[in-house]
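Input (structure):
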């Protein structure tokens, strides 16, 4: 059987190369561009006939990236790919997991339906599972949610003296508690009230900071306002925390804001390519993808 064909639909960073190396996959290519009126042009530059294709790319800026990815997946199937998997280290549209106000679209469900029709399986890292316990509640294909816990805990152990892990809101408990346990460190979880996209309040940490290095851990850093609110409290107490996000989206000058608020460092996983990437998740992804490829082969 031929090696799988890995086709990156987002070409930032070197995660695709790391995945191809780890999987022993052939690197394929695709041409995606925009017509002057904004429509996407998509052309597969690799022969996908009879091949197991893995499309890969983070779904950050999903409204731009998703449609070309769906066209690519459909074209792979039309041109004879035997399976089409999706490795999306960052999975978008997970936050709207409930109709909070009348008439709102529960976009997590609709996005899941779109992707479930387009590909045979999905692998992602720490999706924002809050009101859903598992991706299988909304995805109808095999959809694996991997955890960057051990990779983050390894980074903390190797780089931080006497860490005190802090989750900035109740939803971050799942990440911060797991990382704290794996790193053998204490943790505290703050409470958050969000008044708007850029207007966030978090509670003041109560743990004793003396002799500790506070390490804030959250799944997503988007505007950075959640982390900034926590950093501001810690800085007022004389601490310079390290901020760790699984997915660094860094909208609205978030990184500069975090530094100005008093963060000593900002570190992210390489699920979304960014200068702050310091924690590699490629080994995690390779293990899961190999398992999915094997199980697809053994299916009748
Ligand atoms: C929400 O609960 C998430 O876990 C993050 O706390 C949130 O996405 C961070 O967003 P921002 O950086 O815009 O405050």
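Output (sequence):
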């Amino acid at each position: 059987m031929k090696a799988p064909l890995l086709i990156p639909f987002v070409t930032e960073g070197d995660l695709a190369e790391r995945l191809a190396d780890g999987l022993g996959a052939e690197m394929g290519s695709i041409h995606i561009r925009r017509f002057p009126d904004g429509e996407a042009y998509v052309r597969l530059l690799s022969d996908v006939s009879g091949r197991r294709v893995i499309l890969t790319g983070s779904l950050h800026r999903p409204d731009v990236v998703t449609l070309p990815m769906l066209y690519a997946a459909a074209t792979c199937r039309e041109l004879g790919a035997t399976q089409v998997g999706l490795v999306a280290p960052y999975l978008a549209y997970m936050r709207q997991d409930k109709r909070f106000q009348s008439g709102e679209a529960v976009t997590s469900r609709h996005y899941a339906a779109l992707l479930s029709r387009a590909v045979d399986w999905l692998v992602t890292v720490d999706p924002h599972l809050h009101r859903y316990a598992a991706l299988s509640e909304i995805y109808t294909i095999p959809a694996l949610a991997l955890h960057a816990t051990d990779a983050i805990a390894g980074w903390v152990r190797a780089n931080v003296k006497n860490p005190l892990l802090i989750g900035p809101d109740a939803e971050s408990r799942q990440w911060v508690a797991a990382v704290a346990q794996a790193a053998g460190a204490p943790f505290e979880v703050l409470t958050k009230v969000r008044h708007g996209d850029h207007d966030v309040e978090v509670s003041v940490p109560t743990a004793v900071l003396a002799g500790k290095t506070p390490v804030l851990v959250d799944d997503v850093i988007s505007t950075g306002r959640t982390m900034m609110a926590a950093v501001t409290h810690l800085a007022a107490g004389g601490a310079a925390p390290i901020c760790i996000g699984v997915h660094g989206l860094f909208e609205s000058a978030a990184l500069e804001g975090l530094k100005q608020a008093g963060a000593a460092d900002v570190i992210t996983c390489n699920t979304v390519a960014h200068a702050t990437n310091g924690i590699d998740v490629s080994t995690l992804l390779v293990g899961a993808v190999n398992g999915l490829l094997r199980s697809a082969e053994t299916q009748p």
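Notes: The longest strand covers residues 213-221. The mean pLDDT is 97.
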